[in-house]
Amino acid sequence: MRHFTLLFILLTSTFFSTLHAQTQSNPNALAWRWIWNNYQYPISEKLNSADYTTGGELAYSRYLNRWFNVAVPLKFGQAALPVNDAGTTNGNEMIGSIDALLHIKFLPEESILQPYLMGGAGIMAQFENEKDIHPEFPVGIGLNIRLAKRLYASAETQYRINTGDNRDVLQHALGIKFDFGGANNDDEDEKTADTDNDGIPDTEDQCPNQAGSASLFGCPDSDGDGVSNKLDECPDIKGPAELKGCPDSDGDKIPNHLDDCPTIPGLASNKGCPSDDRDNDGIKDEDDRCPDKPGSEYTKGCPDLDMDGVADLDDLCPSESGLPEDKGCPDSDDDGIADPFDKCPETPGTAANKGCPELKAEEKEVLDFAMKAVQFETGSNRLLPESYVVLNQIADIMLNHPERKLRIGGHTDSIGTPEANQILSERRAKACRDYLVSKGVPASRMSYKGFGESRPIADNMFAPGREKNRRVEFEIYVE
């Protein structure tokens, strides 16, 4: 214990006699921290709350310069010291230590958070065994958090490398730190230096020799634009902060003093003047159909996504390559009708049929024959059985051509009143439609209408003519 006390006096007097204050105020600090020691972690490499023992620490530290402090902590407390490599202990024992540490700082003194690294050397002693005294080499990290003008919350974590067997220790500390000054500290507390008399202490004033406002950290702002003179490239003319305090009359984000056309919005690449080729595609805006979208000369400055030579502006199929005569759309079956307009895009056809092929001759014959073959009971819309054969053939044609639709028109002779004939013709047309629906032809693909006696194809004066006029017409078409 005598060796321990003597060593503390020696180290403390050495530091007090050789260190110099950074300023006239607050170069010194005292800290009290509670500490928690874990001698088992270096052996087991496992953290267990039951392995921690407690103690206390009183530390003196001294400011050296912007980057460094030195500290002399005196620590004492209980420790469960291992007696072998398995971590066996003889229970808690009283220990003490004293160190000389160097703190490496990262942030200015005025910062609320003050992190630091530490490293140094010291001595650890067991109070009950004066022979158990070993050098230690602590390394670690610390953080001080400003609570008041000179008061801080203080936390540290160290790994202490000991030259003795099983004496390495993981140590945590938490407490408070208080800064205090030199011989004239009381006077400094009463009057903080403020060279420019702007009410902001020099230690917090970024412009200590020029009066300024607190909102600008003590710096002046001559033009009142919210940008301090030290950061303002135009200190006498108002301007936004994003342009370093300089005005931008035309709102093109180029400050006036760098803008060759300060009243006309322009491009930075053209010194603030408008470009004659806004989209930079090599085609002047006056000749460019799409001045804000880059394109080629072939498409007069407009983009051509599918590269088919038809500008997207004119291309009905801008993502599919096609011919100009097809408005940039493909023609999959090469029938001269572009796919978007082709009802049968995979089968060559005619323009009259909207890209679908003509009906076969035998299919047309079925439709012509149906006018004579579809028969009804006299004065009725009931189909005669002999009508089913041709109607079945029409159903097959419709099912084989799903792209086509069917118009059904009913007609009568002039026997009877026009009103009655109109009703009868419509009912007969509907009867044909209903029969085809029963054979699987969707009703949505068919329409029917009665024309009565209004559209004769022969003379109603004679029986042969009236027979021809009593008919149902079937027209298959592509919509």
Task: Please give the share of residues in helix.
Answer: 10-25%
Mean pLDDT: 87
Low-confidence stretches: 1-24
CATH architectural label of the domain at 2-185: Beta Barrel
Strand content: 25-35%
Main β-sheet, spatial strand arrangement: 1-2-3-4-5-6-7-8
**Could you give the order of the helices and strands?**
HEHEEEEEEEHHHEHEHE
Oligomer: single chain
What does this structure look like?
With 479 residues, the protein is an alpha+beta fold. Among the domains are: 2-185, Porin (Beta Barrel); 361-477, 60s Ribosomal Protein L30, Chain: A. It has 7 helices and 11 strands. It has helices at residues 2-18, 41-44, 185-190, 361-373, 388-400, 418-438, 463-469, and strands spanning 28-38, 52-63, 68-82, 89-105, 113-126, 129-146, 151-162, 169-180, 405-411, 446-450, 471-477. The strands form 2 sheets. It has an 8-stranded antiparallel beta barrel with strand order 1-2-3-4-5-6-7-8. Helix 4 runs antiparallel to helix 5 and helix 5 (388-400) packs across helix 6 (418-438). The longest helix is centred in the last third of the chain and has 21 residues, at 418-438. Mean pLDDT is 87; it is low at 1-24.
